Structure formats: structure tokens, C-alpha cells
Amino acid sequence: MDPEQINEFVVGYLKKKGFSSAAKDLESYHHQNNNGSSFTSVDYHNDPELTKLIRSFSQQEDDPTRYREGYSKLRSWAYNSLDLYKHELLRVMYPVFIHCYMDLVGKGHTQEARTFFNSFRKDHEMVHLRDLQKLEGVLSPSHLEEMEFARSLRKSKVNIKFCQYSYELLLQYLHSTVSTLMLGIINEHINFQVYSGQPTSSSDDIEAVTIVGSFQDTANHINQKEIQWGLLEDSLEDRLEKTGGLLSDSEKGQGESKDGDADDSKKRSTEIGKQGSSLKKLKKDKAGNATAKVARLETITVSPAPRVKPELALPVMSTDVEQSILEDLRNRVQLSSVAMPSVSFYTFVNTHNGLNCSSISHDGSLVAGGFSDSSIKVWDMAKIGQAGSGALQAENDSSDQSIRPNGRRSYTLLLGHSGPVYSATFSPPGDFVLSSSADTTIRLWSTKLNANLVCYKGHNYPVWDAQFSPFGHYFASCSHDRTARIWSMDRIQPLRIMAGHLSDVDCVQWHPNCNYIATGSSDKTVRLWDVQTGECVRIFIGHRSMVLSLAMSPDGRYMASGDEDGTIMMWDLSTARCITPLMGHNSCVWSLSYSGEGSLLASGSADCTVKLWDVTSSTKLTKAEEKNGNSNRLRSLRTFPTKSTPVHALRVSYAFFTRINSTIL
Amino acid sequence: MSIVPKETVEVIAQSIGITNLLPEAALMLAPDVEYRVREIMQEAIKCMRHSKRTTLTASDVDGALNLRNVEPIYGFASGGPFRFRKAIGHRDLFYTDDREVDFKDVIEAPLPKAPLDTEIVCHWLAIEGVQPAIPENAPLEVIRAPAETKIHEQKDGPLIDVRLPVKHVLSRELQLYFQKIAELAMSKSNPPLYKEALVSLASDSGLHPLVPYFTNFIADEVSNGLNDFRLLFNLMHIVRSLLQNPHIHIEPYLHQLMPSVVTCLVSRKLGNRFADNHWELRDFAANLVSLICKRYGTVYITLQSRLTRTLVNALLDPKKALTQHYGAIQGLAALGHTVVRLLILSNLEPYLSLLEPELNAEKQKNQMKIYEAWRVYGALLRAAGLCIHGRLKIFPPLPSPSPSFLHKGKGKGKIISTDPHKRKLSVDSSENQSPQKRLITMDGPDGVHSQDQSGSAPMQVDNPVENDNPPQNSVQPSSSEQASDANESESRNGKVKESGRSRAITMKAILDQIWKDDLDSGRLLVKLHELYGDRILPFIPSTEMSVFL
Q1: Per-residue confidence at A484, pLDDT binned at 50, 70, 90?
Q2: Taking every annotated instance into account, which residue ranges of this chain make up the domain TFIID subunit TAF5 NTD2 (chain A) (predicted)?
Q3: Chain B CB contacts of A273 below 8 Å
Q4: pTM to 2 decimal places
Q5: Hey, is the C-beta of B112 within 8 angstroms of any chain A C-beta?
């Protein structure tokens, strides 16, 4: 290439970039000394690649159609590549796609950006639907600046794991087609982690889903931290096991005969069912059965969870409460895929579309509902059960003033909030109700006095969720202001503020040992925070839409999270890895709950079903089984469809069954 | 560009008083408007999710505006969903249906009902992992369960194992329900309540677990209570309600039900009192049988053949009582005219010769016997008539009958109407019909005459049928029912024919068929005419009649 040409390129380039004066200077300079020998420090003549590269710089730099061409070429190449490497190569497509789009928007080609986006969005809708919906609205450079999601995408690089050969294939393609534009985007925004060997199977794609690369790094870094997921020392379960031994000794003579009974009990209960005796009888039967099972419990817990010390000063439990809990624990029936639980279903009727949340106290005797008209209503199920014989209820009304302060009402009305109530939960003994609302406050109510005790102000935006710690006294809240906070009942200021989520914190849950809380967010991650230090100790990445519900297994080892799409993920807390996604729901998973032994997971969803999952088998599944892909079906034990009633809240009570409630709209 | 066109921005600008908005400014604003709307929607969806809903409401949008520190738009949070209307002439332009309300109407309107207060109801969604079949639960599982049992039945028959959970969860409510129904069926004291019960049986969704109990109950009571006419009738009503219930999967229990129904059809003696109208019961049972055959004939291929065999055996056994014959004829007739043609008409001649002595008052001294014989004769005539009617109806509709023909038909009515009077005399002495009913039958011919004059078209065609069918007319106790029956017979026959002859015959095929069948039918008609005399004529559709005559 002769210097004349080079000059032309340079001038053309400068003009394109808007340095017209510089271009003029250069031109005039060249006119002055026409020999132009000073430019040849690089040997352009022998490097055609470089020539092309430079030429392409000067050629229509701004032409929006180049994005489209480049992308569609890359796309067809990727789709026609070798099957073995195809899924890896296809991973590149999404980052390239969104950055092409954002480049186009950034340069002001709104029209072209739109058509480009629409023509290729189908490719990515499967996995990235939510992100696409967000990006779709970005139409001007200022939006790019404003929107946090877009900003973080622009700033960070995406990590993509590539096997050696895929990487070479890609480079080869980019060089041979001289698609400098694509090359530029890929260089700028993608960070390849090349590893030697065969490409990974496409099923491991979950990690490829999250796009924010630097974020992934920090996540990996954070996830290195050590956590103590064990149960508390000297917990009631511990004491139960100790006393359980004693009990079974003292009851040995009795116990043996009962053991025989227990085997028969299955049969017996079915017989009773046939004869159609009352439910109460059934319960009693099960309770009798349960005592026999306590003895077995010891043998089953072969590898007990490690014990840890509490980092918080925990409240002292009164002996009465302790006794009753111990009693409950003793009566607990071990649930498994063979011994299925009973499900009692509470339906809210005539809610006029206003029920936002509901919850059930730990002993199942109280049910609370939070409504969009700022009210909270608490029902005492025992009283409803007593007066259940219909006609009697009406007669009792006048005499029962204390229970029904407003005459005919069957519930206690708690008024105080000034916005929709988004959560209402009971303290473990059931003497307090904690509610959070769109009016940015959290309120504490007493179920004994039926009155508001404290109003906690601290959040700046609607408080989406508030949860008591497993031992009461402390509680956690989370809000639209992207923080989660820890409070104690006796202070009106938060004790800790957990900040770090990139979007709303939608749900919060305590770890059984009280040292950690987990939060689920609209940024599609779940985080685990240390309560004592307020630091984030785990980030769980894998959900494809906003996380709506969380549950911790009773042994503290696992966590389940449910999202907007109906996917439930089981996480191992120590490794921060997803054990298994549980697919089955096709709409929002509103609530999750583990059974007392941690062997079953119940999920309630907006698709009007309650599903039971066998989580013991899923954790023990071998790799081979998982590869078969049908493991999902094995894990899903039962589906209970309701009569078009979305399921809002679930609680596995201490005794033996799941309680669920919901609303008819 | 953006989904908000610049015209929209201009229109909105005008509506808030900005008239001099530059087109460029509108063009710049449009994408921003879209972005803001999307932003609001994103927040609104969050609010919706936290309200645990899957439909976005106006209050969610208000909530989202609050989050952005924007004043909410008032006047939309009405609770109910909006009604959108399509703008006429535009494909995707919608507006809210916001009617003007007259102030006066609002003031004068009565107070609306107070909204019901929120309540909690409780039920078992599952008991030890099994969903009980109660009305509160979705009926999905309930319907599926028997299908599974059927498969098992065919395979290796561990029937008990599979059905157990359904029995097992028979709730207290269901037991009470069953008891109540059983009591009602036995007591026969409270007809309106019983009717309610039947409606509930025919429509309730949670009754499936009770089906085996009901079939058992019916089978037991039918075999024990053959003397109790009312009870039998009640039981048959239960059967019909169960068959009608769309939530019940009755197939596996049919084998238990069929004997009871057939018993009510062809039993020698139903009810012990003289007044018991067992004919009606037999007719009812016949309808049930045909209903069952129609619905489940495709699943149980042997069902109809077994049934017809039973009925034909009953019919052709001269030792069997006339009541049994009657039941058999009605049962066969209800199965459609193909069955009648194949099974009754072929045996018609010998049977009639057998029946002849019984009909004759001189030869048969027992009045009751004569009455029964006439009943049978009537049933036979009706069956044959409907059959020939159905056959002739296959022909494509011919031009509507000319008025002159109607007169002819009436003329015949008059001619034959001498017959019934004769017969009625014999019947009246033995029959203890209610006076009112007799009155109707007596009035029959005269009424027709008067109506003939007034000339109400549909009645004219049908009334002769009634007249010309003396045995039915004179002895049918519920004359009103029978009358309507006769009235419907024509239209219904058309339907029966259509469904019966479901092999889709194209128009051309029909025409071919006609010419082939023409002779055949003609012969059949002649034969029937020989046997029945003019009594068969009213069954023949008028137009065809004109052809044959």
C-alpha cells in the first residue's frame, strides 16, 4: 500500500470521527511535503490483515446496518457450527446481541436499534426474557445512562467459559471474516475463561445465564468465605434427643407394644377412614403413633448437623413454652415419600381482591391476613372450629364479646398501617404479629391485647417482607430501598443494615441457627448475610426471574428459593451451589416450607397447586440419575390442585401436617 | 421508532393546553414516554407480585407512581377490572368503557347489598397425601381415579387396592348426604325435597365416592322392594340423576345398575296395589335403558346386544306375562327404530296372532287381562309406527304438506274415531282411571274437531295421531304426558333418526338409498297396514303418505 492511500485512510478516519480541523491540518501538511516518507514505521505492505482493519475503520464507521450484518453473520455461523461446540459458541451470542443493541441506541440509531432488537429477540427470549423486557424500553442514550441495569452491563465484562477449541474456532471466524465490529464488541465486553479439554455439557448452562461478569467474580470471592451452617448448641432438638433417650427407656415396656401398633397404624387409620369417623380420632391415632416414632428418630439422625454457638444474645424462653415445644417435637411424625402429610387448607372468601399476604402461627391456631386496605385480620382457628356447627355460632355471638369486639366479626381487626400490608407474620409462640406495609413502616402487634405496640420506622420505601427469628425477639425486614435490616423488638432503630442487592429485596428468611439471614431479590440472586457482622457471605446465582420465596431446611444445610417463573432451586449453603432446580410450577411460587425433618418440601403457587417434593432423594441423587433428566419427576411427589385458589402461605406445623392458606378472588 | 407515536404525544400536549409543540420535540419525547411507561410498569409489576396477584390492577400502578414520588392518577382504583372497548374501524385501538351516569339514577337507586365480610373456611386438601373427593377440592383427581381402576381391571385386576383410597376417604358429610338421600328415597313423603335432592345428585361434583354405595343401595332396594311402586320409581329417578351428573364416572358401576333398571322394565309385577301405575315406571325405565345404551354402547360393545337379547327373550316367551311383554317392547322401542325393525317387526305377525285372543272381550273374560293386552297392543303399534315413521323420514324433506291433505288426514281421524269409543267402553268398566283423565280422553275427538275449525297448524297435524292411536290414548293414565309424547313424537323421531343413522350419508347416497328403500319400505308399510289396519296411517308423515296412497 502506498503512502498516498494511507493518508487517504487517515484523513477519512479523522473526518468520520469529527476531527475535521485535524484532518485539514494533516492534508495541508501532506501537501507541503509531498514525499510523505515519514509514515512508514510499520510495514503495511506486507500485512494485508492490518490493511483491511485500517480500511474498515475509515469505512462507514457509523453505519448502523453493519451491526445487523455482522451479528446475523455471526449468528448463522454459530448455529451452523459443530454440534459439540455449538452451545458454547451460542453463549457468545447473547452478550453480543445486547451490546450491539446498546451500541446502536448509544449512537442514536433508535429506529435501527428497534428493528435489530425485534428481529433477533426470539433467540434469547427463552432464557433472558426478563432482561430483554427491561432493555426493550431503552430508546435513547440518556436512558442508557439512567438505567442501572444497562449501566452495569456496559461497565462490566461477561465471563464465559470456553473450551480451547471453541475459542480457536471463534477467533478463526472473526479473523477470516474481518468482522472487526463483532471482534470489538467481543473484546470489549466478554471475558473468556478458556480451559483445555472437552466442552462442558449444555446442561451446565445455568452459570452462563447471569450476565454481569465482574459481579460473578465478587460472588465467587464472597462465596469462599466460611459459614457455620450447623444448628445451635443446646437447642431444643438436642435436649429432646437427650430426654428422648430417657423417655424411651421409661416407656420401654410400653414402647415395645406400641412399636407393633405403629406398624399396624397405617392399616388402622385406613380402616377408620373407611368407617368415616371424625377427624379428631384420626389425629389422636397419629399422635399415639408418633411417640413410638421418636425412638426411631435417634437412629435415623446418623450424621447430626454440627453445632455452633449463637452470635446473638438470644432471649430466654419460658419453661412453659419450652415444654410445649418439646411436647410438639415428641409428637412429630416423620414424613417421607411414604408417609405423606395431610394438608389442611384455609380459604379466605370474600376478600374482594384485597388479600396481599397471609400467615399461620407456628402451632396453627391463628391465621392472619394482610389486606390492601391497610388492615390486618387475625382469625383464631380454634374458636372457628368450636363454633363450626353453624347455627350455634350465631347464638354465641352476643355472649362472646371479648373475642368479637365488633359484634358479628369472627376475626380481630388490626388497624394502623396507612398503605397496603405486604407481610404479616407471627412470632414463634404466637403472641405477636409483625406486619410490614407500603407506608414504609413495620408494626408490632400483640395478639393478646389486640393492639399495636411499636411502629418501627427506618426503611425509606415500602417494606416487602418482615420475618421473626426462629427464637423471636429479633426480626429481619426487607424493602424496595434495596436493603435488608435486622431489628430487635425493644429498639426502634435497626441493629444492622444489609446493603448490596442491586434491586428490591423481596423476601427474607432466617437461618435456623439465627446467625444468618437469607434475602431474595429482584436482581435474581439470593444472598446470605451474617447477622453479627452484617456482611454478605454467600451469593446464589441461578434464578432467571425475581425471587419470591425462601425456606431453610431444619438442619440448616440447605435452602430452597422459588421465583416468579415457578422454578424452585435447592441450594447447598456451604458450597453456594444449586443442588437441583425443581421444575413443575408454571406460575409464581408464593411460598415454600420444609417439613419438620427436612425430608419434604412443600410449595404453594399462583398456578393453584400445592406440590410436595422429596428433597432427601434429590440430595442423594447420583450424577448419572441427574443426567437422565427425568429426576424432576422423581422428586415431585404429589400435586394437589385447588379449586382455582392461588396458594399464598404454607406452614408445616410441628405435629404432622402442612397448612396452607390462600384466597378466593 | 417507539411504540408511542408522535401523534399521541401531540394529542396529549393539546389536551393539557400546549398548542405550539414542535414536531421535533414530540419526536424526541415519544421514546422517553415509552421508557417512562415501561419503568412505571416494572414497578407496578413488583407491587402486583407483592400483593400476590397475577393480574395488574390500577392500584398497582398507583403504588408504582408512589414509589417514584409521582402523584397517583385518581379515579381509577375502583377495584374491578376495566372494560376495554375496541374503537370501531381500528385494529388495535382501545378505550375504557366509561358510561355517563345520570346523577338522579345514582341517588334514586336502592342501596347496594353490603359486601360480604371476609371469612376463612377450612377443609382438607389432602389426608396423608391422598386428596379426598369433597366438593371443596378440584374434581380433577376424582374423575381420573376410576379411569385408572378400569385399566387395572383389564390388566390384572387388583381392583380393591386401587379403589381403596376413594372409599377410604368417605367423609362424614358424604355419609350424611348418602343417608339423607336414602331416607328420602325410602320415605316418599316429601316430593319437593326429593326433587331438590335429585337435582343435587345430578349436578354435585363431589359425589363420586358415593357412587358404589348408591349402586349397591339401588340394587338392594330394587330386589327387595318390587312390591313398593313408589320406591322403585324413586330409585329409577336416582339412577337417572346419577347418569346425568357430569362429574360422576359411572361406567365401572354400570354392570351393577343395569340389572336393577332392567328389572323395573320387564318384571312380572311391579308394585302391589291396583292403582300403581307400573306402566309409567316401565316407560321411564325404558328411557333409562336407551340412555345408557346410547352413552356407553360404544365403550361396552356387548351392552346393547346383551340387553336386546334379554328383552327379546322376554318378548317371545308366550309364558311370560303381558306386563313383561309390554316392558320388553318399550325397552326395544326406546333403543331406536333399527332395533324395532330388526327385532319386533320380524316377529310382529306371529305375536299379533297370539295377542289377538287376549284382545277380544268375548274370548278373554278377565278384564284386567284385556286391558293389559290392549296396552301391549298399543306399545307394539307405537313401536311399529315410530319405526316406519323414522324410516320414511330418511327421505329428504319434501315440500310442505298441502292443506288439502291435512283435511284428508282429519277425515281419517273422524272415520277411525269410532273405534276408540267401542274400546273405551270395554276399558272403562275395568279401569279405575281418575275422572279427569277420562274426561280428556272422552273429549279427545271433539276437541280435535273444534280445533280443526279454528285451524291451529301444529296441533292439527298431531292431534289425529292421538286420536288414531286408541289404545294409547284411552288407557294411558297420565294422558298429558302421553299427549306431549305424541306431540313430540314427530320431531323427536327426526332426531332419533339422525343420531341413529349417524353414518354420514351424503345427499347423493340418500337419494340412492331412497330408491332402494322405497320398495322395501313400501312393502313394510303394506304389511303393517294389513296388520294394523288404518291405525298405522297417522304415523306416516303426511307427505310420504300422499306418495304411498
Answers
A1: very high
A2: 61-190
A3: 127, 168-170
A4: 0.56
A5: no
